[in-house]
Amino acid sequence: MSYQVKARSHIVSVGYLRAWERGAKVALRLVGEEHSILTSVRNAGVRSNFYRRQRPDTGETIYDVEWSIEQLEDAALPVISKLAVRWPLSLGDKARVAQFFALQHVRGPAFRAWHERYNQPTITALRSDPVGTTIRTPDETPEEVAEKLIGHASSDTHRHVKMIKTARAVAVSLGSMHWTLVRFARPRLVTSDQPVVVWPLSRGRARPCPNNVDLGVTDTLEVFVPLAPELLLLMTWVRGPDNPGVIRGANRHIATVNAFVVANADAQWFHEPGVDPWLAAGPRDPISPELISGYDIDAATKCRERQDVLPLITAEAQAPVSNEPIIILAR
Per 3-state DSSP, what percentage of the chain is helix, strand, and coil (rounded to 5)? Predict the structure, then answer.
């Protein structure tokens, strides 16, 4: 296939951001700044050639990763935009939304930085001991083999393949969690260029902070992501089927969600024009124990589904990259 050149890469979906758009504009605020500006969603979350890669065999520059992301967005965004109407979701729709937000979790600069850290020990070992870390070939020296391996590990192709494989494994976990739809009377939720917030089991009451990518998404108390200024998707390890109704959230939950969404942003966060965002400043508690009766760290730790999904995640992580449907637990 030939792929359209997409030099302006969006690290957060334009279609997703439209929920915060009013009058063809969204309010954009740079991290650390005090004021927002109005702009088109087409100008939000843009990075230069973020998903570009070169073919390993020919060196040809291609944008097939961008094309793949667009296919997932086309499948998931119609569900996300009507999620409240379609709630509770069918298993197929849940899998589509899970894949969308799993990819959103790993498609930004935070995963890119993690991948560089992940590769660094291998690269260091190859450079310091080419003989001991490579298999000798008749036509190449150990140093030459090591440089080839370093080039592969450092390539955009390697990173993008890792991103897609990781996204599919993360989607198995997210899709197997218990989902709750939370609605707020005051539509004040914000979002960001990295909007998926993961609250690990090891984190108690905490000040707003970015995700710890090293901890994954399975040993978690909750995962949440804003869907619109008034809607939040909350994922937990509650036993049983997803809540068929919609839970009402309080203003303090808006402030908590917003603070952690902003803390997880790479460079930009967004809100509805004309709205003064609420952001918590001090230490905050996770929101799920307050919204779901009987749910806490002990319940999440002992949840059978959290254990049952581990083999599915491992199988997906070890499988070749494909377009096959993911397997998630039915609730």
Answer: 45, 20, 40
Range of the domain at 130: 8-317
Q: 117 φ, ψ to 5°? A: -65, -40
Strand partners, 304: none
Contacts of 189 (CB under 8 A, 6+ apart): 226, 228, 229, 230, 231, 232, 254, 257, 258, 261
Structure token digits, residue 4: 């359209």
Does a structural domain hold residue 3?
no
pLDDT tens digit sequence for 82-133: 999 999 999 999 999 999 999 999 999 999 999 999 999 999 999 999 999 9
| Overall pTM > 0.85 | yes
Number of domains in the chain: 1
pLDDT of 66-96, one tens digit each?
999 999 999 999 999 999 999 999 999 999 9
